[in-house]
Amino acid sequence: xxxxxxxxxxxxxxxxxxxxxxxxxxxxxxxxxxxxxxxxxxxxxxxxxxxxxxxxxxxxxxxxxxxxxxxxxxxxxxxxxxxxxxxxxxxxxxxxxxxxxxxxxxxxxxxxxxxxxxxxxxxxxxxxxxxxxxxxxxxxxxxxxxxxxxxxxxxxxxxxxxxxxxxxxxxxxxxxxxxxxxxxxxxxxxxxxxxxxxxxxxxxxxxxxxxxxxxxxxxxxxxxxxxxxxxxxxxxxxxxxxxxxxxxxxxxxxxxxxxxxxxxxxxxxxxxxxxxxxxxxxxxxxxxxxxxxx
Length: 294
Ligand code: GUN
Hints:
The protein has helices spanning about 10-30, 45-60, 75-85, 105-115, 125-130, 140-150, 170-180, 200-205, 255-260, 275-290; strands at about 5, 35-40, 65-70, 95, 160-165, 190-195, 210, 230-235, 235-240, 250, 265. It is an alpha/beta fold. The chain has 2 domains: about 30-115, 3-Layer(aba) Sandwich (Rossmann fold), CATH 3.40.50; about 140-275, 3-Layer(aba) Sandwich (Rossmann fold), CATH 3.40.50.720. The mean pLDDT is about 95. Guanine binds near residues 96, 97, 141 and 170. Guanine binds near residues 97, 121, 141, 142 and 277.
């Protein structure tokens, strides 16, 4: 079997076009244009690239966007002050602090400081808790983007065995909750695996759906995949390649070339989950701008 490509870029463009139309209507009616602020600390090249993509997508959708850049040596206290100002700024509907942060800053403290009503990343415990309870919430962008891809391609999930590889707060953990939730997409039997899992290969071989979010290039190999499985690759790993224009190439967590021969559906990297993450963030920002606050 050769897997059908899950074209995240195309689905994201479709979603962004819907958002653009809605923003245009808001503008025509004299309403408030949603405003997203991104806080970028330091000069991590991957983070800079993600922020550029997020801002470009805001432009495409007619959404107002601002980047606040701070040097890597900003104190935790000064960063908390930036967040406090954004929490209290009525012109800002949603904001994100791009992760990872420098070592001396406690990411947990920063996440907790963000007003959950402006937490369009969906990282605050209020949003995480609401999500876990099945209440309306700002869903975290990457897991929500994955749900949108599954919906778009009408991939069956009910009763299926979904193996999530990775237990991060922003992908693996919320993804496992969302796939087990009542409804569609959902109703899966979920196994969440991580670095201490024994017999990872056997766990993956039982999966109808694998969601790989470990951040290691080509970690999921063809011998770990059942024939006909659906493969969602969240990894965006920079792998050195002197023949590439930028000196590196983006590789997923899945050995794409070999695994696509066994999969029924598979996301590519780039062009799979990445663009969907951005589209979901913009979706949340539109909600925030319209006052759909959780
Ligand atoms: N770092 C990696 N993914 C994300 C994300 O979705 N949001 C933020 N703020 N930082 C990230």
